[in-house]
Design goal:
Shape: globular
Order of helices and strands: HHHHHHHHHHHEEHHH
Number of strands: 2
Strand order of the largest sheet: 1-2
Helix content: 55-70%
Distance between the termini: 44 Å
Bound molecules: Phenylacetyl coenzyme A
Strand content: under 5%
């Protein structure tokens, strides 16, 4: 998600606020945030704001392109032409989301090469969820339903992020994610309503494996989230990790009932007093293990990305040579 070089701490921020002029700029910036203005690429911004955005947006971009891999695994094995066409379109969309997001991060002064380098050498983070394997076709439906469902819950508020280029990228991404979620849910509905007993069991097994990792997508509990407070204050995040996780659980329970699957949590129940669902404890040791590079597929995912990058070198070289040739021809004309 970010390199050591991009890392920030409160001390960096304090160091940046030494001059009166900078203090004034900072106050003007905070006033714009308070007024709900969008901050644009050419506007002055505190270094910590810039770095927080580079960290979050580049993590998000990496998640999109690594997120193509678990589903890409099933393109050749989709059960029908219709399902294959849908899956191809979805995986291409994820690639497109990565491109919008890398572009948004580039407006903050970091290069795509820098960001990809951080991903390839293992310094950058990407969403924990994509380090789990896709074992059966039902996993593809469940990824659409739960993983895209969690992504939408997290990303709709980002359409109101205080940084304009990120907020605008998120509007289009959210529209596409909505299709992704629906196609996943629809494919599961077909399996649960028209499928054999074995197919229904396959859906339940996929739900059992993806439920808890989906809840982990929202990040650590608020009390253990070092970035949330400042990101909320700056309007980068509009809802906290725990608020979003709760909203996701509340939205998903009735969908599971309609589908006819059981969510694998004996403690999941409606709390009439809170008017929200209570749910069981998340295994945070597992979460940090996966984030730290030791999930079931971390090594494989990274190796696949690096291989794709290396094998695509000739395409980048050819595109650059072509662009240089055209520029030289234009100069000569
Ligand atoms: N995985 O202080 P916080 C998708 C890290 S896209 C890995 O709470 P923050 C589409 C966090 O970076 C899915 N690391 O951090 C799709 C931080 O580490 P750092 C991606 C995680 O930034 C669907 C540390 O833990 N979505 O699914 C995770 O305020 C299907 C402490 O955490 C986005 O990126 C995690 N789950 O909040 C594609 C949305 N959670 O950097 C294909 C934008 C936390 O301090 C198929 N991002 N960490 O070393 C966000 O909303 C936020 O960055 C959060 C984390 C909520 C993810």
């Amino acid at each position: 998600m970010y390199t050591q070089a991009m890392s920030v701490g409160p001390q960096d921020q304090a160091a940046k606020l030494q001059t009166a002029e900078e203090q004034q700029r900072n106050e003007a910036f905070e006033a714009r945030i308070d007024a709900g203005d969008f901050i644009e690429a050419k506007d002055w911004m505190p270094e910590h704001y810039r770095k927080t955005l580079v960290r979050q947006i580049s993590q998000h971009a990496h998640s999109e392109i690594v997120g193509m891999l678990p589903e890409g695994n099933w393109i050749t094995r989709a059960p029908t032409l219709k399902r294959k066409a849908i899956l191809l379109a979805k995986v291409q969309d994820e690639g497109g989301h990565g491109l919008y997001l890398y572009s948004a991060a580039e407006t903050l002064g970091t290069s795509r090469d820098q960001m990809l380098d951080a991903l390839h050498n293992g310094k950058a983070k990407y969403s924990s969820i994509f380090n789990y394997p896709t074992l059966t076709w039902a996993d593809i439906g469940v990824i659409g339903w739960l993983v895209d469902g969690a992504a939408i819950m997290n990303q709709v508020p980002l359409c109101r992020c205080s940084y304009g280029p990120y907020a605008r990228a998120m509007i289009r991404i959210c529209r596409e994610e909505s299709f992704h979620q629906r196609q996943g849910y629809e494919s599961l509905l077909v399996m649960m309503r028209e499928g054999t007993a074995a197919q229904k069991a396959m859906v339940q097994d996929a739900v059992n494996r993806w439920w808890w990792p989906s809840l982990m997508m929202f990040g650590p509990a608020d009390k253990d989230s070092p970035n949330s407070e400042q990101s909320m204050r700056w309007g980068i995040k509009r809802l906290t990790n725990d608020e979003l996780r709760q909203k996701f659980v509340d939205a998903t329970v009735p969908q599971a009932e309609l589908l006819g699957v059981t969510l694998p949590d004996p403690d999941l129940k409606w709390n009439a007093q809170r008017e929200q669902h209570d749910f069981g404890a998340i295994d945070w040791d597992e979460f940090w293990r996966v984030v730290g590079g030791n999930g079931p597929c971390n090594t494989e995912r990274l190796a696949t990305r690096v291989k794709a990058w290396e094998e695509g070198a000739w395409v980048r070289d050819a595109a650059l040579a072509h662009a240089n040739k055209r520029a030289t021809a234009a100069q000569a004309a």
